[in-house]
Write a structure and sequence with these properties.
The protein is α+β, with helices and mostly antiparallel strands. It has 2 domains: 110 residues, Rieske [2Fe-2S] iron-sulphur domain (Rieske Iron-sulfur Protein, 3-layer Sandwich); 182 residues, Alpha-Beta Complex (Naphthalene 1,2-dioxygenase Alpha Subunit, Chain A, domain 1), CATH 3.90.380. It contains 5 helices and 17 strands. The strands form 3 sheets. The chain has a 7-stranded antiparallel β-sheet with strand order 11-17-16-15-14-13-12, covered by helices on one side. Strands 1-10-9-4-3-2 form a 6-stranded antiparallel β-sheet, with no helix packed on it. The longest helix has 21 residues. It is elongated and about 75 Å long. It starts with 12 loop residues before the first helix and ends in an 8-residue tail after the last helix. The N terminus is likely disordered.
């Protein structure tokens, strides 16, 4: 059995060392639940010390632990009742009372942390401690978002039949607004994309400091059209932040996309909204964002190849500067999952 905290052999080491969102923190309870990350089947459950992620496979006979139950702060296998603590250690074998299970009977347990309203998992620890942990904003860590408004709503999960990089690139794309989001975020009579500059953070992540566009309905609270200023920042290979504001004194909105590659051509997405809007209800904000993604999803799932080409093969125009920069960033970062 794979030792706790290590990756399965088929998982690329760089992605295996990254922290990935796998569930809403509120959804990880005392009831075991399955999840999939980079093709690895997981079971998620909550112990007294916090969220736990294990391989969804009992080391005894391979049964799904997600079909089991939590008893006395241990996860019990549904097949023979073996019990596992939050560290993966086997603490009880009912068929052999009084037996102390050795370490070789442990379940495969993965590192977890909770941040930004989500539970994050990494499949293996980095060779150099500290290279992919914590909220340091590095390519494989979790970005710090303390500067964003306190009001936060999270939308999802959305299971999408495309790669995680395709979904993130769509989030960064501006020239589809006039067509996919006509009457909402764009106007078919004004499809032009104004010139913008792409800069980079010190660690190479692409940024657009200011992008100005007219939007017929820029937000859930908007009664009409408005000139909107966007700021885009790639947070990591599979995450990005969009900040937008309209007229002075109006609400400030910030949106993140968190993409989890369940496989090379399928992903699970969450969108978080951080807003200063104090008038719109949670339902109104949620309905607006769900409607926006409902317009995106069928187009995203129609794209071929599903994996994002980062070595050429798709035509580009001047409006695609950020897409070009994002693909170059993925290539320079050594990303292999969801790209071709």
């Amino acid at each position: 059995m794979t030792p706790a905290g290590t990756a399965v052999a088929a998982t690329p080491s760089r992605e295996a060392q990254a922290w990935w969102p796998v569930a809403l923190a509120a959804d990880v309870t005392r009831q075991p639940a399955p999840a999939t990350l980079l093709g690895q089947e997981l079971v998620l459950w909550r112990s007294e010390s916090g969220a736990v992620a294990m391989a969804d496979q009992c080391p005894h006979r391979g049964a799904r632990l997600s079909l089991g139950q939590v008893h006395n702060d241990t996860l019990q296998c549904p097949y023979h009742g073996w019990r596992f603590g939050s560290g993966g250690e086997c603490v009880s074998i009912p068929a052999v009372p009084g037996f102390t299970p050795p370490a070789s009977h442990s379940a495969c347990r993965y590192d977890t942390q909770e941040a930004h309203g989500l539970v994050w998992v990494r499949l293996t620890r980095p060779a150099t401690p500290g290279t992919s942990a914590g909220a340091t904003g590095n390519a494989l860590g979790l970005p710090g978002l303390d500067h964003l408004p306190a009001r936060r709503l999270i939308y999802g999960p959305f299971d999408v039949a495309t790669s995680a990089p395709r979904a993130v690139e769509n989030f960064l794309d501006t020239s589809h607004f006039a067509f996919v989001h006509q009457g909402w975020l764009g106007d078919a009579a004004h499809p032009e994309v104004p010139h913008y500059e792409v800069t980079h953070t010190a660690d190479g992540r692409p940024v657009i400091e200011d992008y100005r566009a007219w939007q017929p309905r820029a937000a859930a609270s908007a009664a009409g059209g408005d000139w909107v200023h966007y700021r885009y920042e790639v947070l990591s290979p599979y995450a990005a932040l969009l900040s937008k504001h309209g007229q002075a004194g109006g609400p400030q909105d910030h949106y993140t996309i968190w993409a989890c590659p369940s496989g090379p051509e399928h992903c699970r997405l969450w969108f978080a909204q951080y807003t200063t809007d104090t008038e719109s209800t949670d339902d109104a904000l949620r309905d607006f964002q769900i409607a926006i993604f409902a317009q995106d999803q069928p187009v995203l799932e129609s794209q071929r190849p599903r994996r994002l080409p980062i070595s050429g093969g798709e035509a580009m125009s001047a409006a695609d500067r950020l897409s070009v920069a994002y693909r170059r960033y993925l290539k320079a970062s050594g990303i292999t999952v969801g790209v071709c």
